[in-house]
Amino acid sequence: MKYKSTRNRELRVSAAQAIMQGLSEDGGLFVPEVFPEIEMEDIECLAQKPYTERAIEILSLFLTDFSDEQLVSCVENAYTEKKFGSDSIIRVEELREGVNMLELWHGPTCAFKDMALQLLPHLLTTSAEILGNKKEIVILVATSGDTGKAALAGFQNVPGTRIAVFYPEDGVSPMQKRQMTTQEGENVSVCAIKGNFDDAQSAVKQIFTDQALREKMNANEKMFSSANSINWGRLVPQIVYYIAAYAQLIADHVIQPGDAVNICVPTGNFGNILAAYYAKKMGVPVNRFICASNQNHVLTDFIRTGTYDKNRVFHATISPSMDILISSNLERLLFDLYEEDDASVRALYDALARDGKFTVSEGVKKKLQTLFWGDYCDDDATQATIRTVFEEEAYLCDTHTAVGIYAAERYQEETQDDTQMLIASTANPYKFAASVLGAVYDDVPKDEYMQIEMLSRLSGLPVPEGLAELKDKPVRFTRSIEKDAIENEVISILGLA
Ligand SMILES: *Cc1c(COP(=O)(O)O)cnc(C)c1O
């Protein structure tokens, strides 16, 4: 299996190369040359197997240059009972009849990002081994909060790697900030920027395509790679859990093999929902994808109008991991909907760079609307959803997941489509304690740990160790820089000045 670029369909690189490089040199994203298909009988068989075996089987279809031993070792080191609380790794819970929650946040940093970022360091170091690469791998991360911590946890003290994380100073929750600034490890650095996620992401993308800097890195036996969802190694583990969840619904007798489901995903960078779309391409019968956004609803508007327009006010919301106006992975979907016409994709992204917007063709818009349905809600509706779901179903969800539940409900109301719904539950509610507690209780104490304690008393959910232990950890990183100083910061961290 080879990979091509969304901006150059003639390019062919191996999985190991795609993972090592992160972004293609032409600025495009790597995609598989074909999507392997998986038969319904095979999905049924997966239902009988533990998560690690489901993962190995599916990953082996994409990572064909990895040996069986290498894949087994990657997966078994990533998805352990110790790190994920049980060997099921994911959980599928019925919220109410016809609506199922796919809980993806049982990993060490309490967000779904762990599903990919516990595996990625293993995929990356194995890729380096396959390619005979001896250079130090420098991971640059732009984060809206959750990717940063999950990547730090995944790469902490991994030999041959360094990681530098940039987060928006005023754009993450207090708990997210504490998780990152207390990070241990010899190879990690964390820095705040005066700007938003898009600023951080653009700066990092620019560094990746800077030819002079690349040569300097080369001369110093270093290379950049990415842990953001532009990296194929981030997306492929996410395809696994959608197939695994479908298998789980069969095992739980919620659906019969072959039944269609709808999948609703609270979306920011379009990575998680794209992985669901790829699962459909492989054979999971999905009727409709519901793309849920917060007040930054650039994707809702895109799905409804066919015009993607990032020229708008940026809102800092209580679902900060979705505060994004440039959804990188949409490029992969467009490449697919344009039937791999790379010239069209290049034209769209040239327009985005030039005018901050683009409009897709009528044909692509029609395909988009057949597959996807978009909706969004503001912070008040997010909190109202948390409260209603807690009161009516005794289910405590985080702010991002609440946006998903809201959109799924709106979809069902408007379309009367009663196909079984699978909603991606993307974070542990304790990670956004102030907003979640504020939704279900009037008197929110200032201290984060008191908030968590109160939530625990109200809900009976145990406090995850990864959050409880932060209280006693010293803050290691306090640096804050201007958004246009990111490249210099990287140069100084790496001692290349
Ligand atoms: C990252 C994140 C999202 C958005 O996921 P994308 O893959 O960027 O669309 C949603 N919820 C939470 C909790 C997240 O951390």
Structural class: alpha/beta
Helical content stands at 40-55%
Count of discrete alpha- or pi-helical segments spanning 4 or more residues: 23
What does the largest sheet look like?
Answer: 6 strands, mixed
Instruction: Describe the global form.
Output: globular
Describe the protein in words.
The protein contains 23 helices and 16 strands. The model has no long low-confidence stretch (mean pLDDT 96). The longest helix is centred in the middle third of the chain and has 20 residues, at 232-251. The chain is α/β, with parallel strands linked by helices. The strands form 4 sheets. A 6-stranded mixed β-sheet has the order 4-5-15-10-11-14, sandwiched between helices. It has a 5-stranded parallel β-sheet with strand order 9-6-7-8-16, with helices on both faces. The chain has a 3-stranded antiparallel β-sheet with strand order 2-1-3. It binds pyridoxal-5'-phosphate.
